[in-house]
Amino acid sequence: MESSDPDNQIQESQAGNERDRLVGEQRLMHDRLTKIAALRELGIDPYPRSYRRTHTTAEAVKLLEAAEASHDDPEEHARTEPVSVAGRIMARRGMGKASFIDLKDGSGRIQLFARENILGDKFELLDLLDLGDIVGASGAVVRTRRGEPSVEITDLVVLTKAIRPLPDKWAGLQDIEARTRQRYLDLISNDRAMRNALLRPAIVASIRKFMQGRGFVEVETPVLVPVAAGASARPFTTHHNTLNRGLYLRIATELPLKKLMVGGIEKVFEIGRLFRNEGVDQDHNPEFTTMESYEAYADYEDVMAMVEQLVSTVALETTGSMLLKAPEEGGPDIDLTPPWPRLDLRQEIIKRTGIDFVECDDVESLSGAMRERGIHVEPGLSWARLLDKVISSSVEPHLIQPSFLVDYPVAMSPLAKRKPGVDGIVERFEAFVLGHEMANAFTELNDPVDQRARFEEQESMRKDFKDDEADRLDEDFLVAIEHGMPPAGGLGIGIDRLAMLICREESIREVILFPQLRN
RNA sequence: GGCGCGCUAGCUCAAUGGUAGAGCAAGUGACUCUUAAUCACUAGGUUCGGGGUUCGAGCCCCCGGCGCGUCACCA
pLDDT tens-digit profile of A442-459? Predict the structure, then answer.
């Protein structure tokens, strides 16, 4: 470091002055950039193009355990063949002529044990390393006196110098805004964030496997659509320049999938992103993921059986159990083992509120009954929207263990088939766990004349109640089913909600890597 | 959108209206089995932004920004 060249000394002191002028994060970055320059001075590239590792950290630990298991001389310590590992420096404990480094990779962590007498000149490299840097290290895996599996390193390679510091090594990143805006820091420093990030794709893979195992064909249908139909929601709008026409982002995949039913794909499903131009809160994100499936010749009883099998199987595959233990923050254990109770919607509403929607069959009587029971009534809502409110405020919160609400009023369900022999009721169910709706399904309406009438009713609701979330008439779809859609059972299941359940997270933000923030 | 809460060092958090602090991270030094290493020293602040009240504001008031919670709606 010291130099007899006076110019050099002046430069060094100027550099020192420059450092003194810098404050906070600027100085932290300056120090790291200075180390990068020093590495280059030594002919070391701080960003080499690749590194050949022989073992992940988890594999290295396993290797040591195997060596110890086949080791017969208790006097001598087990020692593996040399390995090469790579990862991010998470902590460092310097001991003068020895140093301990915690290295983290995608599989776990391992300690690096650096000793000057073994590493030689390379020991000085440690002075140029920082927490957050990515390095490669090689050497035999041994166990230290304190029992920690460690790579006793003979070689150390800088793979990436970081120029910004990591979050607090103990507390991690706490601020929810920073955790979502800079999810990479969350993933590095919070184990639960990484667990969730990996659990969700495992859930999706498991769903796909389940559906494919039952002979369902996965398809992709358009995100950009001329009519945002198939559900009750406000759509996002966009514009195609060359075609010079307005388009919507889809709010459901239901109608195109049913067109494929007409076409003869008898078991079909799609896992995809939907977009709804509505609020952001603990369990709503404007873009979210669903799995929708349609099975020809099945009815909603078949679908109910499939849903309880699907959800319990996915939980078993991804967590090893159908029993979801309560998280540390508290809450009930959840048992997903089938069968789940089937609860008649009408009876459940009566049980919780005393309101019988068969008697309160118009807006006046229903809103009156709601007001009597202290349920806030927004003026100008349709009967269907009012009843939906009764259900979500008075029934859903009680559905903690998995259960099905069964048989909905036709006014709430424009795409579901009427239940034979029961006036005003359709064959529809929703699945609930922890008070959240997980799935919505019905025996699909395939009578084209009735379907057209239902759409027209929705259109008039849009006008009469200024309900811009009412479902929309899709002429192309009606023409399709006028050619004959087989009887079918359909399902929509919220992947984000399912991920929340299996991750035992209360907020949708914890299972979406980059959720929408407010404003 | 209404209401409530929050925003202080890179990170995690303190601070009766009265000199803005600690731990981690950083820098210097000591240390060859540590693991939230330890020990000594050093540096690091537009207290989210703007206005106001006050002798004096991180703290009280007003306006704005961002976030969270809650109410309403969608899965």
Answer: 999 999 999 999 988 888
